[in-house]
Amino acid sequence: MWHNIVRFGLLRIFYPCLMIFGTIGNILCLKILLRKRFRRQSTCQYLCILAVIDILFIYLRSTRYVYRYMFHVDVRNTSLWICRSFTFFSSSLSHLASWILVVVSFDRYFIMKNFFTRRDASPRVRKSSCILILIVCTANLHYFHVVGTHIPLQIPSIQTDLENATENSSSTLRFVCIAREEYEEFFRLYVPVFDLLLVAIIPFCLMVFTNIGIIRTTMRSNMLFTTSKKQQRHNRLTIMLLSVTLAFMLLTCPSVVYICINRLKSPKRVSDTKLLVLDLLESLWYTKHALNFILYTLSGQDFRREFIKLLSCSQRKVPNSSNTLGNNSLDIQVNVYTNNSPYVNRRALDQRHRQSDCELNNASTLLISKSLRVRAPTGVHSDFIVSTTYSTTQTGTSDARRSSSTTKTSVQ
Q1: Structural domains for the chain
Q2: Where is each G-protein coupled receptors family 1 profile domain found (predicted)?
Q3: pTM over 0.90, yes/no
């Protein structure tokens, strides 16, 4: 009973909220990481690719459970094309989400070791990402041939006569998104091992190796050299990357390992407790793909600053010229209603119009000139002096611009 309650909460509350929160968080990650401060760095470009993969993964996996709750049927069992496409993209995205972290970890490690230059990182990111996507998609093409079959289904029917009732059964074929009969053993034994190695174990080992190297290199460079602002910025970016890889190790790896081992055992009857554990671990696995924005915000100081700037830009008020014009119009109306003399009203109205036109055209200029006479140097005729003129120009509400000009004049 309690297992059904938890599962109902996951289907009705958790997965829809995960889709909304994951979409908003990953879009904000894209918006911030593509700003001028981050977009030139290869690590941020890889993290942008990871954000796109996470959005697709959340929608693809969560849609299955939402569809099951709404229509009481698995979306994979609706047609052969949906079954194979859904399985292919689901497996490919789970592999890409793991291996893109491996690639960005190696990229960061090579940059720390000065194997790569920090300039012109975009071609390297594009090439490595395209190669990774090609390899992962090729490795998952077998799903288009393995899964999807029709199984006979016995439907009981009762026929009643006047004297007795006879029970008959009719056979029908029903499509199910499982492995075909000739590939059933391969799908049961080798595919879980394939997923276990390529989604969890091998990426986990490679990330541990690269992260240890990144931490050692960062600590050594901080001890030997004085940390500049540029080095501190790269250290903060490294901390962001380490937080994401740590979340992968804590959330994705245990879930994938347990799910794959459970698929290898494949008991005939699964207890309610084991089903509950599987559901919770699977939801934990999906949650990792929606947490990147929180991880970046907590671990990255530069990311927080850019996020605050983004919020301040979105909440910016109407430009000052419009506000000035609105305030002038309000003042005009106040003066019109407070002064009783028609002549005074007309005069105030014209004066306000002139002021607003001057402010909008940035024509209000204040010139302050000051001449300073100095004594002529030795050897120079006394009739010649140097006159220095300072002029200060103030336009609207903009900052003052100061210019100095030195002219040589003759005294008559």
Answers
A1: 1-154+171-311 (1.20.1070.10)
A2: 25-296
A3: no
